[in-house]
Amino acid sequence: MGEIAKKKEVINQLKKKILLMEGLSKKQDNRLGDFGLGSVNEAFPGGAFPVGTIHEFVSTTESCAAAASGFLSFLVSTFMGRDGFCLWISPKRQIFPPALSFFNIKPHRVIFIDVKHPKEVLWAMEQGLKNKALSVVVAELREVSFAESRRLQLAVENSGATGFLHRIRPLTKGALACISRWKIRPLPSRANNGLPGVGFPRVEVELEKIHGGRPGVWQFEWQNGKFTPVASQKQSNHASSSIPQKPKYA
Amino acid sequence: MLPLQSLKSLNMHKRYLYIWFQWLATDRMAKINPELRSKPFLLHAPEHGRVVVRAVNPALQKEGITSGMVLADVRAIFPEVAVFPSEPEADKKLLNNLAEWCFRYTPVVATDLPDGLVLNISGCAHLWGGELPYIKTITKRLFRGGYSVRAAIADTIGAAWAVSRYGSQLIVKPGQQQEALLSLPPAALRLEKNTLQRLNKLGFRQISQLISIPHTNLRRRFGTNLLSKLGQALGTEREQLISVQPTPVYLERLPCPEPIRTAKGIKIALERLLETLCERFFREGKGMRTGIFKGYRIDGEIVQISIGTNRASRHVTHLFKLFELKIPELEPALGIELFTLEAALVEDVSESQETLWSIRSNNQTAIAELLDNIAGKLGAQAIHRYLPQEHYWPERSVKEVISLEEQPETQWRTNKPRPLLLLPKPEPVEVMGALPDYPPLHFIYNGEIISVSRADGPERIEQEWWLQSGPPRDYYRVESEDGARYWLFRLGLYDKDRPQWFLHGFFV
Predict the structure, then answer these.
(1) Domain boundaries in chain B?
(2) Which family does the UniProt entry place this protein in (chain B) (predicted)?
(3) What radius of gyration do chain A's Cα atoms show?
(4) Averaged pLDDT for residues B78-94
(5) Given an 8 Å threshold on Cβ–Cβ distance, is A94 in contact with B478?
C-alpha cells in the first residue's frame, strides 16, 4: 500500500511541475479564496479556480449571452473584492450597469470601454491585462484567432491578471490559447412550492474544455447572492449530456 | 488737464515708434500670389447694397483709383483690373502676427487697427546703435518681407502717428513734437470725419493754426475730443498703450552631437525633453493636452508624432508612455540631429484635478493612466463609467461620469428586477394572446415564436412628466419554455388604441 501512496505522491508532484511549465498555476496562491462553486472546483487543475489566465466563454444566443454575463459577473465580483476596478470591453455593449449590482458588483467600479472596431477589443484587453492595477478584464467579441489569444495569454503571464473572453455568436470554433471554454445556458426555473411566476434564475454551466482538468456539466440556481448547485434528479431533460455528468453534488 | 511741467517729466523718457502698413491688405494678397505684385488689383466688400473698393495696391492708385469708390465705376474706368474680396479678419490676424514678430525689438507692442503698430521703444534703440539704425533695421526687414511701411519715432504715440502718415522725417527729436506737428494738416491728429470736415470748412489747413487758439474756444466749437487728441500728440495728456500679449511657447529643443538612428536613442531624447518641459509645467501650474514630438533628420525631412491626453498632464512617465506607443512611426532614416517637443495645447491643472491623480492609491493613478492610454488610441468617447441616478425610467437610471473619483450619492437599487443585458433601443415585438394586465402567451422576436411559460409583473413605470410626456410602460419578466428570460413591456394602456409591445432586455 505504501508503494501506491508513494506513486500517487510522485504523480501529484509531476502534475504540479507540468502545470508550472505551462505557465498556468504559479499564481495559484488561493489569495482569492473559494469562488463558492462547490463541486466545480474538482474539475480544475489543482482543485481551485485558475486565476492569472484567460478563460473563454461561448454564447450562441442572446439569452445564453445574458446567462454567461451573469455567471461572469459573479466570477468578476470575487476578483474585484471591495474596491477593485474592472475593465469591461465590448464593441456592442448591452450590459445594463445597475443590474450588475444583483451579482455583487458595484457597477460604478466597472469601467466600460466601448470600441468601434472588433480588433480594438483585443488591443484594449491587452493593455488592461498588462496593467498591474487591474486584476480582471472582461472582453466581449465575436472572433479571435489562436495567435491573438496567445498574445493575451502572454500578457497575463507577466501581470497575473485574469481575462475573460466572452465570444457572443462566434462564427468559427477554433482552439484558443485559453485554459478553459465555458458554455452557459439558461434553464427553466422551478418555482418554490408551486408558486406562480418566475423562480430563481437557473443556468446550466458546461465546462467544455479545461486544461489539465476534467470537463463537466453542472446546474446552478442564483439565490441569495450566490450560485447554488441544484441536485441532479431535478435536472431537466436538456440535450447537453454528451459529457458525463459529475455524479456528486454538494 | 495736468500742469504741463509735471507731464513733461512723465513723458521724458518715453519714445514711441509707429509703423504704418500703408498697403497691408494688398501686400498680404501679393505675398500669397507673387504675380500680383506688378499688376493693378483691388479688394472689395459689399456695403449698403453696392460693392465698394476697400483697398487698392500702389499700381492701381497711380491710375487714380482710391478706396471707397464703387467697384462698377472702377471697372468702367479700368476694365482689366483684378478684383478680390477683402478679408478684414485675415488682415487683423496678420497685424497681430506682425505685432508678435516685433517682440524682438521691444517688449511692448500694440496693434492700431486697421493698419498700424505702436511700439514703445523706450530704452531699446541703443541696442541697435541708436534710433536711426533701429528704425532702418525694422523697416528694411519688413520691406524684405514684402511689406512697404512708413514709420516714425517720437515722444508721443500721437506725434509718431502723425509724422509717419503725414510727415517726412523718420525721427522727431525728444521734446520737439510740437515743431514737427505744426506744418501737418489737422487730419494728422486722428480726428473723426465730422470734425475734420468742419475744420476744413473753417479754413484750418495746418495744426499751427489750431494751436494758437485758446483751448476754451476750441472746446466750445469742436468738443473735448479735439483737445484730448491734440494733448496726446503734444504729450500733455496721457495715452494708454495696450500691448499684445505674446503667446507663451512651450517648446524644448535637444540637439544631438551624433545623428540618432535607434528607437532607444529616440526614447532617451524624448524622456529628457519631457523632463524639462514637465518641470516648467510644475512651476507654472500647467499641463499638456496636446504634444508634438518632432525629429529633424539630416536629410532635411521632419518626422513627427503627436499625442493628446484626457486631461492636462505633467507626469513624465505617463506622457512618455503615450508617446512611446507611436515611436515606431518615426522613421529615422539616416539619423535625426535635432529633437523638439512642443506642447501645442496647454491647460491649467486645477487643484481638484490633482486629487484625481492623488496619492490616495497607486492603483487609481495606474488606472487613470491606462485610460489615457486607451483614450489616446480609441478616443475619449470610448470610456464610460456610470453612477446611479434616481429615476425609475430604465434609460435614465444611470448617469455617466468622467472622473474615477466620483462616488455614488445614492444606493444602486436592487429591489426591482432589472435585466443584465438591456437593448439600447427597445425592439418592437409582435404578441399573441395578450389580455389586459397579463403578459402575452407568445411573442415573435427575430422571426422566432417564443412561448411564455412563466411570467412576473406587471411593474408599471410612468413617464417622468417633467422630463418627457407619453404613455407609461408595463414591464413583465417572462420566461420561455426553454428557459430564456426576457424583459417585455407594453407601451400604453388598453383604453384607447392597441398598445405596442417591446422587448427591452434579457435576464440571466
Answers:
(1) 251-355, 384-415, 421-507
(2) Belongs to the DNA polymerase type-Y family.
(3) 18
(4) 86
(5) no
Phi-psi region of B47 (alpha: psi -120 to 50; beta: other; left: phi over 0): beta
> Per-residue b/e over B158-184, b at no fewer than 16 CB within 10 Å?
bbbbbbbbbbeebbbebeebbebbeeb
Nearest CA-CA distance, residue A162 and chain B, Å? 16
Interface membership of B362 toward A (CB under 8 Å): yes
A-chain residues near B413 (CB < 8 A): 98, 101
- Smallest Cβ–Cβ distance between A98 and the set B367, B413, B456 belongs to B413
Classify domain B251-355 at the CATH class level: alpha beta
Q: Is B367 an 8 Å CB contact of chain A?
A: yes
Classify B316 as helix, strand or coil. helix
The answer on pLDDT for B12 being more than 80 is no
Tally Cβ neighbours within 10 Å of residue A10.
10
B485 part of contact set with chain A, CB < 8 Å: yes
pLDDT by residue for chain A (250 residues), tens only, comes to 578 889 888 988 887 777 777 655 554 444 455 677 777 888 887 777 888 889 999 999 989 999 999 999 999 988 887 778 889 999 988 999 999 999 989 898 899 999 988 888 999 999 999 888 888 999 999 888 899 999 898 888 888 888 999 999 988 887 888 889 999 999 998 877 777 888 889 999 999 998 888 899 999 988 888 888 886 544 444 434 334 444 444 3
Mean pLDDT estimate for chain B = 84
Say what the ipTM of the complex is.
0.81
- Could you say which of 2.60.40.10, 3.40.50.970, 3.40.50.300, 3.40.50.2000 is the CATH number of the domain covering A29-234? 3.40.50.300
Whole-number Å distance between alpha carbons of B247 and B373:
29
Domains in chain A: boundaries: 29-234
- CA–CA separation, B343 and B248 (whole Å): 10
Question: Which of B367, B386, B479 is the closest to A198 by Cβ?
Answer: B479
Min Cα–Cα distance to chain B from A146, Å: 24
Task: Please tell me the distance from the alpha carbon of residue B180 to that of residue A247, in angstroms, as a whole number.
Answer: 113
Closest-CA distance of chain B to residue A104, Å: 11
Which of A69, A188, A196 lies closest to B421 in CB terms?
A69
Q: Which of A69, A107, A198 has the CB atom closest to B455's CB atom? A: A198
Q: Which of A111, A228, A235 to mutate to test the interface with B (most CBs of B within 10 A)?
A: A111
Which residue reads 459689399 in cell numbers? B46
Distance from CA of A201 to the nearest CA of B (A): 6
**pLDDT tens-digit map of B450-498:** 999 888 878 999 888 888 888 889 999 999 988 899 999 998 887 777 7
